Amino acid sequence: MSRYYTDEHEWIDVEGDTATVGITDYAQEQLGDIVFIELPEVGTMVDKGGDAAVVESVKAASDVYSPITGEVVEGNPALEEDPALVNTSPEEDGWFFKMTIGDKAELEGLMDAKAYEAFIAEL
Amino acid sequence: MRYLPLTDTDRGEMLKAVGADNIDDLFVDVPEVARLSGPIGDLPMHAGEMAVEKHMRQLSKQNLAAADAAFFLGAGAYRHHIPASVDHIIQRGEFLTAYTPYQPEIAQGTLQMLFEFQSQVARLYGCAVANASMYDGSTACWEAVAMAGRITKRSKAVLSGALHPHYTEVVKTMAKFTGDEIADSAPSVQAQPDNAGLIARIDDNTSCVVVQYPDILGRMPDLAELAEAAHAKGALLIAVNTEPVALGAIKSPGELGADIVVGEGQAIGVGLQFGGPYLGLFAVRDKKHVRQMPGRLCGETVDADGRRGFVLTLSTREQHIRREKATSNICTNSGLCALAFSVHMTLLGEKGLRQLAGENHRLACMAAEKLAAVPGVTVLNESFFNEFTVTIDGDARQIVRELAKDNILAGVSLSRLYPGVDAFSGGLLVAVTETTTEEDIETLCSALKEKLS
Amino acid sequence: MNAPNKSGWKPSTPAGTEGKFGGPSTTTGNKALMLEEALIFEIGTTDTTGVDLPEIDASAPSKLGGFARDAEIGLPGLAEPEAVRHYTRLSRQNYGIDLGFFPLGSCTMKHNPRLNEKVARMPGFADVHPLAPVDTVQGALGVINELAHWLITLTGMHGVAMSPKAGAHGELCGILCIRAALEARGDAREVVLVPESAHGTNPATAAFAGYKVEDIPANSDGRVDLDALKARLGPDVAAVMITNPNTCGLFEPDLREISDAVHAAGGFVYCDGANFNAIVGRVRPGDLGVDAMHINLHKTFSTPHGGGGPGSGPVVLSEALSPYGPLPYTARTKDGQIHLIEEEQADAFSDEHFGGKMNSFGRMTAFHGQMGMYTRALTYMLSHGADGLKQVSEDAVLNANYILRAMEDVLHAPYAHSGPCMHEALFGDKDFAEGLTTLDLAKGLIDEGYHPMTMYFPLVVHGAMLVEPTETESKATIDQFITAFRSVVERAKNGDQSLKTAPHYAPRSRLDETMAARKPLLSYVEADAD
Asked: What is d(CA C464, CA C482) in angstroms, rounded to the nearest whole number?
């Protein structure tokens, strides 16, 4: 399994033909207390860089973009009951959705953990 | 000028403090071409309270107030007695001169009231959640259609022919700009609403079926049957109610399966006011649809000391946060009208509301019976609450105009609502409330008898 | 469903308030005149009522068609003394203009004259049905026409759509007029340009009307970047939505030039009139090339805000847009007369006066609009007269500049260098101590007895504070506010941590908005219902 990061602060875990997407610890910290997550419906086709989910704090709503192109195959059911999971465990239990990998080549433009760490250090 | 506290001395000192020689220095950014000086058109100069009141009173006297007539107008706006304490409460400065409760620590009065209002409306409508109000019933109706589109991701709304024609017009106007398809039809002037015809128009692209209950002609459509038919096609049922007092006597739309219930709340606490401000009511039966609702929502929470308190919540649906992705552009709504509604409803309580509804229905039944006995008048409805349709042998609109000269406001003619439809020329909507006396009913009957003989 | 609270009184005793305000805790949670109040669902019952109506006669005929309600609704009632007390107690937990200074930027919280209230309650206005025969409501139509005349004259425009119910509804009206006018000339355009400092209703409105929204940047003086705007104009731009004075409290001196450029490119200019109080009687938007502008009667013309409405948002229109306005509609004809036009007469009237059919985009609301607001606004206008209204804008602008100059040495005022402000002064949180924010400062002002200013708007200034004093405040009130404002600013700059937990003296301390949003509780549920 390998993990990649985007400059929009999403992470993506690739395992075989499917990938899991969430937002980074840095992102959740910027957003503050998260109160609601709108996940894409299973079966939705999402484009790389396109709107895939919405994450809401009390005073803000932010779009979450899909890191790659593919079809949504599962949403994280735990988030409906407990959106705070994204605050407490953003990069594990607080994952957003799983998707197919339309084009493996798209992963190449993404950052690895080290590059992402350097990226947020600059912000 | 009595509303301006600054004296000329103050103004002089303040100008000096900001480093300006005169007031024009503060308007330097206004280009020369746009600066006004001297009188503005033919507008008059300032006037004292007595002079202004006199002028307005003269305008007021050119209107025939409902209290001075035998009054039978309805069609979406109803005259009811409003207890004196309602007007007293809404004129308390802390309610009247407050803003939208953006600072909840010093707006608990408005917020708790809104929470109570939402709860009252939800119960009255048989729904899980109601919002903190919309502009009026017609705009709430459109917002419900738009919301059904968001939920079902379909774009065709099927409107009952017996939906208030002005509501239909509002929905059609708005839909022109969103690209929604609106299937409407003329009302069928029969004893029973045409449910079968409405059901036949539902298809797989239908987002919602919009039906008024009681409908524009005062009839009772079977909402349960419509809900079943709509749900079978994956569409939502939107029930529209323009007379909330009716819900003290008849089953709630939510109880009958409506998914979104909207309506006009004016009849309780607000008054006629020539059409506005009124009070849009908006509720959903299932709380899973809450995040698609338009408008403000007040919710319960606690403060830092653990005390119960209330806040505006789920604001991320709204324009000030979501901007172009908001569920609606609505901002200011009808807060003070919601207060009037809530105070009146609290004074009524379940017992009073049921009694009020009972009295309305009793008098309406009496009026229907007496009108049916007038030669040339036929009562159309088999069922009704406090408003029903009669057909008369003559031009109803003309007769209404003529009777108005004798201080009889006989009802709303169908020609007023549907101009140019000849088939409706004899149709007249007659509304009867607790403010109608038996004497008023006699007056109307004998006047019609005279006109039609 | 159980009847609400059949057991009677269930006080909601506030917890954790021991020792607040330096005294012992009380049994009731009350603090002398600070009175706690339960919900109506906790103190009322379904068989209590505050009205006297006849008992229902079960033997009376019923024509309800089998829909008679049997289940209990669950609506609690209170007898009149209890009801009056309930709402009076609630009212005392509210701040209003009647209590004190309310400098909420962009909202124009001015005094609401009581003559307006008295007039609105005259039976000839309050007790008149919207569908009454027109012969019986000539005075009501007279009010609409007279108010329309004032609005048209004060703005130098051609027509006015009276029916929109509030500012955002008015914006929608204006943008729909623009779209209808463009469509009438077969010109489908896709984009509406909105300055980034705009009120959120602007982009929401344009998006609703089917337009793509693009931002226009502001320049370093807090105004629309004219060059950027001009560069973006083209055949795809339907309209530019501009707020003038803008949300930074500054007049847009280039508006005429902007309008000319927009018109030359075939588009229209929408002006958000929320800030009309700064210029009423001194500047006519019609002279600046504006095509449509809504006027918030509940701001400039003193109709009460009522804790969130009702508002009223008539839209004045240029000659080019007038034929497309919604019905019912009010227009001035060449002879100077103003007419009210509904569906029936629209075409004939338009044929006669506008040389063609009325192309109204339709109806926005069931009836004529906010009559109750019209009577109040007209009363206000007649009281002030043309001379008084000019004084209104002058005093409003003077008060705001006085605050701006009294604060700029202690508080970051990002545009103070660019000249006088209009009716509101804008500040930012630049020099606050680490960890203290605009929100904390606002809560500190609550403890000082003020309603805070608008916070975090406009978005173009960090930690924005928008202060709008209006003209109905005395110099003494403003001087006292400045003293208090300066002291709270100093506390914020010095890192006074007690601001983090302010307000300390309000009926409630800070509310947990996260909990409210995560687990929305939007309707009363009996404790035993689960």
From this structure: 17
- Phi, psi torsion values for C344, nearest 5 degrees: -60, -45
Task: Write the pLDDT tens digit of every residue in C271-307.
Answer: 999 999 999 999 999 999 999 999 999 999 999 999 9
Interface of C with A in 489-518 (CB under 8 A): 513-514, 517-518
Same domain, C347 and C427: no
CA of B311: how far to CAs of B103, C34, C89, C122, C510, in Å? 9, 19, 18, 36, 10
Region B244-250: mean pLDDT is 98
Domain boundary (C306, C341, C375) is at C375
CA distances from C518 to A84, B313, C12 (A): 8, 10, 23
Residue B438 contacts residue B64 (beta carbons within 8 Å): no
CA angle (C15 as vertex; C10, C20 as ends), nearest 5: 130
Tell me how far the alpha carbon of residue C78 is from its chain's centroid: 32
Cβ under 8 Å to C: B residues 125-154: 128-130, 132-133, 135-139
pLDDT at C8 over 70: no
Helix H or strand E segment including C269: strand C268-272
Whether ipTM > 0.95 holds is yes
What range does the domain containing C121 cover?
Answer: 116-127+136-375
Give the closest-approach CA distance of B316 to chain A in angstroms: 6
Q: What is the pLDDT of residue C9?
A: 47
Interface contact flag, B291 A36, Cβ < 8 Å:
yes
Residue type present at position B370:
K
| C382/B55 CB distance under 8 A | yes
Give Cα separations from C267 to C155, C177, C182 (angstroms). Answer: 20, 12, 8
- Residue C443's pLDDT band (cuts 50, 70, 90): very high
Inter-chain CB proximity A36 and B325 less than 8 Å: no
For residue B273, report the phi and psi dihedrals to the nearest 5 degrees: 50, 35
Task: Write down the pLDDT at residue C18.
Answer: 54
All structural domains of chain B: 66-82+351-452 (3.90.1150.10), 84-344 (3.40.640.10)
**Among B1, B99, B176, whose Cβ lies nearest the Cβ of C388?**
B1
For residue A80, give the chain C residue with the closest CA: C518
Over the stretch C318-367, which tens digit does the pLDDT of each residue have?
Answer: 999 988 999 877 665 677 555 667 777 778 887 887 777 778 899 999 99
Query: How many domains is chain C partitioned into structurally?
Result: 2
**Do C230 and C150 fall within a single domain?**
yes
| Nearest in space to B396 (alpha carbons), one of B436, B437, B428 | B428
**C527 Cβ contact partners less than 8 Å away, ≥ 6 residues apart:** none
Structural domains in chain A?
2-114 (2.40.50.100)
Task: Name every chain C residue with its beta carbon within 8 A of the beta carbon of A33.
Answer: 514
Read off the pLDDT band of C3 (50, 70, 90): very low
